[in-house]
C-alpha cells in the first residue's frame, strides 16, 4: 500500500468515526455507507490538509471527493503530484 | 429587477390563482385556524382545486410545470394571507421537488407525480426521529426487506399535517446494517401506512395550523418506493435549497403583509395633519428598507439556485450550501424584526386582535422562522464548513 493511502487510512481511523476498521475498508467502498457523516468528513479534510500541508480547492469540496479512499487518493495526487516510489 | 420578471407563463396563472384563493379563502379563515390550531382544510382544498398542489410536477406528467422561481412567488403570495397554509404548501412542494429531482423517469415515481398533479395528493415529510434530536442527517430506523417487499417503522417526532395526508416521504437507514448517516428516502402511502397519534399536542406560539405532531409510523411496500439517490445527495441538491427558498419566500410574504398594514396606518396619520410628519413615518422608512433587503436576498437566492439547477453537480458544493443556509439565517431574523417594527408602528391597534391593523398572528408566526431548524444548528453547520472552505 502506498504511503499516502496509509496516511489516509490513519486519518480516517482517527477522525472518520467509521463503523468498521479504516484499515480494511476497500479502496472503492463508499465511506458514507460506512458511516462517514458530513461533520466527520470536514474533520478528515482538515487533518489531511494539516498532514500534507495543502489546501483542498473549492472544486474538490464535494461529497464525491470524500466518497472513497480511492477518491481521496486521487485528490491528493492531483494536488501533490504522483507519489514517487 | 423583481423576481416577477422571471416568472414562467404557467407560473403567472398559478400566482393569479394563489392571489385569488389567498384573498377569498386563506385570509378569511386564518384567524380561526390560528385560534383553534386546526388544519386549514379550506385552504388546502382550494389549492387542490386550483391545481397548486401539482404546480411543480412537470407538464409532461400532467402537472403545472412551474419553476422554483414560480414557487417562490406563490409562497410569498400565500404567506401574506395565512402563514400556516403557506407553510403547508411549501413543505408539500419540497417533497414534490425531491421526487421530481430524484425519482423522475422511474415508473413508480412518474405515476406518483401524475397522481399528485391530477388528484392533488398532499405529501408530508418524516425526517426527524425520537432519539436523534434535530439532526435529520442520521436515522435510527431502517428499511427491512423480505424479497421485493419492504417494511419500515419510525418514531417520527414531527410530521407536519401528518394526520391529513395519505402520503409521506420518510428518511431511514438503507437497511438494518447501514450506518446512521447512510439514509434513503422512502415514499409510503395509505392504506399501507399507519400513523398512530402520539400523546403530544400542537399547541404552539405560532404556525398553529401546521398541526406538527409526532407519530409512530409503520408502513409496508415494495423496493421501488425507495428513491434511488442517497438522502445526502437529495438533501444537498434539492431538499435544503428548496426548503430555505420556499420558507424564506413565505416569510417574506408575512413581512410584506405586516408592512402593508404599517404603511396604511402611517398614510392615515399623515392625512390627518398635512405638513406634520407622523412620528411613525421614520420607523416605517426603516422597516421598508429592511423589507427591500429581504426581498433582494430571496431574489438572489432563487436566481442562484435556478442557475445551479441547470447543473445539479454545482449544488453539492459547500459554498452553495453556506449561501442557502445564510439565506435562511438572514431572512428568518429580518422577517421577525420587520413584523415587530410594523407592530410598533401600528401601536395598540396592531397589538389588539380583531382590528384592521392586528399583527399578533404574524408576529407569532414569524417567530417560528429562526426556530424551525434552529438557527444555532445552521450557524454551527456553516461554521464547520468555513473551517475548510477557501476564499
**Low-confidence sequence ranges of chain A:** none
Distance between the ends of chain B: 28 Å
Distance between the termini of chain A: 11 Å
Number of helices of chain A: 3
If you consult CATH, what is the topology of chain A?
Answer: Non-ribosomal Peptide Synthetase Peptidyl Carrier Protein, Chain A
How does the helix and strand content of chain A classify structurally? mainly alpha
**Coarse morphology of chain A:** globular
Assign the CATH superfamily of the largest domain in chain B. Answer: Butyryl-CoA Dehydrogenase, subunit A, domain 3
CATH topology of the largest domain in chain B: Butyryl-CoA Dehydrogenase, subunit A, domain 3
Protein model, in words:
- The complex is a heterodimer of chains A (85) and B (391).
- With 85 residues, chain A is an all-alpha fold.
- Chain A has a single domain, classed as Orthogonal Bundle (Non-ribosomal Peptide Synthetase Peptidyl Carrier Protein, Chain A).
- Chain A is 47% helix and 0% strand.
- Chain A has 3 helices and no strands.
- Chain A has helices at residues 3-15, 38-52, 69-80.
- Chain B is α+β, with helices and mostly antiparallel strands and 391 residues long.
- Chain B folds into 3 domains: 3-121, Acyl-CoA dehydrogenase/oxidase, N-terminal domain (Butyryl-Coa Dehydrogenase, subunit A, domain 1); 124-225, Butyryl-CoA Dehydrogenase, subunit A, domain 2 (Beta Barrel); 231-386, Butyryl-CoA Dehydrogenase, subunit A, domain 3 (Up-down Bundle).
- In chain B, the strands form 2 sheets. Chain B has a 4-stranded antiparallel sheet, with no helix packed on it.
- Chains A and B meet through helix 2 of A and helix 6 of B.
